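Retro notes, structure queue

What went well: the backlog is down to a handful. What didn't: a couple of records were mislabeled last round, so from now on we paste the full input next to the output in the thread. Example, using ATP-dependent 6-phosphofructokinase from Alistipes communis:
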Amino acid sequence: IKCIGILTSGGDAPGMNAAIRAVTRTAIYNGFTVKGILRGYRGLVTNEIVDFHSSSVSNIIQLGGTILKTARCEEFKSVEGRQQAYENLKAAGIDALVVIGGDGSLSGANIFAQEHDIPIVGLPGTIDNDLGGTDATIGYDTALNTIMEAVDKLRDTASSHERLFFVEVMGHTAGYLALNGAIATGSEAAIIPEMDTEVDQLAELISQGFRKSKNSAIVIVAENPRTGGAMGLAERVKKEFPQYDARVTILGHIQRGGSPSAQDRILASRMGAMAIQAIMEGQRNVMIGIQNNELVYVPFSRAVRHNKSINRDYVNLVKILSM
Ligand code: ADP
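Corresponding output:
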């Protein structure tokens, strides 16, 4: 292997740039050449590939987003699209690939690697923390901090007006942001996708009379297309519990932005360097994960479409601490 290609795909996440920098510089340090592929798999299909040097990644560790740009690409979901991508890779002389992205991007990498002879190493880049085999993903800590700062501000107005606030955060398949966001902000409850088939979380919340001894309540809600998320809950409250003055704040894409936290920069730097080590060791079709602060190789098949279980102790903690 002489030349390593790198791309970012799917939803952007703070720390992707720190990962790009670490991959690029570790590769160059070890004698590889590096090429950057623009706009994720789309750039692979449309052949947007540029030479990368050490200076290509100067002064980016502190930046949110991704200098390589990211995109979603329908063509890559077809056999023909992936064939085109492979031909472009070969023509560019790229003989190993580092993919930074979330569940969809790594699913795509998994399929691509089964069809074509190219070693691929993945890095978990998503604020949702919804990949298997890793305790954390690049961008998750920064997003959690963004949520924390926003909810702290909402608390000021919630308590001044004695209101019930539903704050919607991202994570329609994983409640990590909602649950840990609730713990970090002392919120009254978290409503998460992992639990919404078991109990009616809203009814439980109201029946516990959470507002009796309090002058405000904040409930963090994971977005949920099926139930309508925070909006859906507020509508239900209006109908079933009109005594509450329910308000909704949807944090939306601000959760994806911002300068990465120290933790995300360090995680991205460690994982990026490890991706090159993995390629040198002959690993292929693995994602770099972190478990108990040790970097590990996680086969793509175990990383994607994985329902990481939520820690029940955390759910109980929110209940106990908000009484
Ligand atoms: P994320 O990586 O953030 O989860 P997406 O789910 O949008 O983002 O996936 C990003 C891209 O990965 C898609 O636009 C597509 O090009 C590719 N991809 C996702 N799933 C598959 C799949 N099953 N087969 C091939 N490519 C896929």
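Agreed that this is the format going forward. Reviewer comment attached to the example: Residues 137 and 293 are 12 Å apart (CA to CA).
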